[in-house]
Predict the structure.
Amino acid sequence: MYNLDEIGQKAKAAEASIRTLGCGVKNQALEAVASELIDRSAEILAANVMDIEHARNSGMKEGLVDRLLLTEDRIRAMAEGLTQIAGLDDPIGEVLSMKQRPNGLLIGKKRVPLGVIGIIYESRPNVTADAFGLCFKTGNVVILKGGSDAINSNKAIVKVIRQALEATGLAADAIQLIEDTNRETAAGFMRMNQYIDVLIPRGGAGLIKAVVENSNIPVIETGTGNCHIFVDETADFGMALDIIYNAKTQRIGVCNACESLVIHEKIADRFMPLLAAKLAEKNVEIRGDKKAMAAEPSVTEATEEDWGMEYLDYIISAKTVSGIDEAISHINRYNTKHSEAIITSDYANSQRFLNEIDAAAVYVNASTRFTDGFEFGFGAEIGISTQKLHARGPMGLEALTTTKFIIYGNGQIRK
Amino acid sequence: MYNLDEIGQKAKAAEASIRTLGCGVKNQALEAVASELIDRSAEILAANVMDIEHARNSGMKEGLVDRLLLTEDRIRAMAEGLTQIAGLDDPIGEVLSMKQRPNGLLIGKKRVPLGVIGIIYESRPNVTADAFGLCFKTGNVVILKGGSDAINSNKAIVKVIRQALEATGLAADAIQLIEDTNRETAAGFMRMNQYIDVLIPRGGAGLIKAVVENSNIPVIETGTGNCHIFVDETADFGMALDIIYNAKTQRIGVCNACESLVIHEKIADRFMPLLAAKLAEKNVEIRGDKKAMAAEPSVTEATEEDWGMEYLDYIISAKTVSGIDEAISHINRYNTKHSEAIITSDYANSQRFLNEIDAAAVYVNASTRFTDGFEFGFGAEIGISTQKLHARGPMGLEALTTTKFIIYGNGQIRK
């Protein structure tokens, strides 16, 4: 049995020293880790070769092998990521509000690290350095559990990071990797609430569901996206076509891609043929209801299942509706609470859509593809939360912090 | 088998209409519910008599029976609580920040309801009206699961609230009570993550642990308090004695009462006899380490277990330390992350204590008893969170909200 308690105890022991590091020290350490990753890239690449060979021998598809592959350039990009994180403002220590109570107590809310963060993720080994950088910048200790496919690469990257931290006089246990890849260890990792303050799963729907169902640690759920675009009766057709084309085809495998269209029935006859012609440029299949099919012969018939699908492919569904009410209720029923957009020229409908759609990000006249920590100006992203507690939508550094109340008194007692 | 799915579906169905209610409508409904509770107090009291009889017949202690007991006055207090909630500012709809991105997108963060909130709680039936009021004011639908002891009282209160809501034209399902009191139903309630956005347990350590271990719904943990007061070398003794006396004895059964003292060893000889004399006024037993015992003969010997105890009784532990370093590490090791205080005249130590103690509320020169939503000026409290996600410390109305990003564009697509 892999000793998870020992890992938990080491993380707790490192927590006190990491929590109170000043921003300057943290940035220097991030820079030192970045240099070390580049200096020792040969060592990391050698480990990666083992993962790649193992993957090919077990018949992994080349697309997935590519996700696993490291190169000099990719290691340099990893290092640059850390340098960029070093350049971001440190959210730790900010006092968000401080007010005097009638009894003279001065009560403020101070931004502090979460403590120990657990991250459980799948293939890409670059997540290893990235997750470390974001957690470390915010004064947190991190315990990582990567996928078994990338185990050798992850071990090598974590070794380099730990040694670089030690060389700058900091606790190496600011980052630990769970090296055992069996299922019981993964299950045990999700039950370490005596050591870990927050668990963040990054990966496919199956991984996220397993974590949500089994963890006793508070989880930040990062999720799937069945993102809708509603083309209202008053939409500018050119704008609608450009936005749908962008949201569907600019990158198909991402959670903020558009998967579902909702079309006002009064414009279906005119709009659907234009849409079909535009999406034909990328051979996108449109699956629609009866009215959508009647408006455009290339539309194939959608089943009930299509309304809830996250295709991650060159397929999109199209549902016609009688107006804003039906659009809102349809979207709130089938969406995954990620990103939803309306294309309209109508003021009242734009406001109703913003108010009544239940999702992390709601757009008027823009592509859903903008739901992203970098696009939102956070300078970094640890994931996109589709849950409602703590953080919702793209999560930057602030999502990795909590607050504590600090209270200045001069002898106050409660009457 | 009790039909939890039906309850979940009804809650989801009510969610859309409750989420978008204006503040005026919500306040009127709260006032209407308050009047109805008073008008129909006879009905509620009759139901309460059944619970009280059942409790006495099964040998419940009178102290606990009193927690269960309703009177005209207590129902009036319940109604006044709702009127007070009606008078609070509505946090829903506030846009927390809105900034323009280089591409012209205007991105803001809007405060919105969580959706469906589950609350699982023990005896006191007044929690029923209180929890409804806070959830409803913040546009949330609530599903309540009270203790079996109070089932008749809770049914009567919920019936009155539902009928009052209906009479004002609102969805009665804004509040539902799970009337079945068996354990499988409670366990099933904790696994309703397809319907419930957040689950808040209110009650003893056993209930909270069961929820944390078994829920697949995001939980806000409200917790126990092993609160410390550190009397530093430079403490004003008079202030220290007043604060400790207040924090220990003003109300012994609450989570923000002081349970543990940490005393600088250089002042132990002078301070301990004064402390013992002061606490003797309320017959408080002091359990200390060797140095504390040497300083004051009435101190009994503490065991390792005492350092972590939440007594909720006229008992306090006293540990001597060599200074601020040992005080901080002792407290961070044994505390429950609730409320901790330092009594000091030393600037550097006050700042180190505020920075390095890991707790929801950290005090300089004040009683830990102030950790409370009303004392902090929130005007209401749904509980005190001892976890780090979403809300930490006393939770007012804002803790029952989340945010969504609203984005105004004019045709932006991602490059």
Summary: Chain A touches chain B through 69 residues (CB under 8 Å). The domain at 227-370 of chain A is CATH 3.40.309.10 (Aldehyde Dehydrogenase; Chain A, domain 2). The first strand of chain A starts at residue 95 and ends at 100.
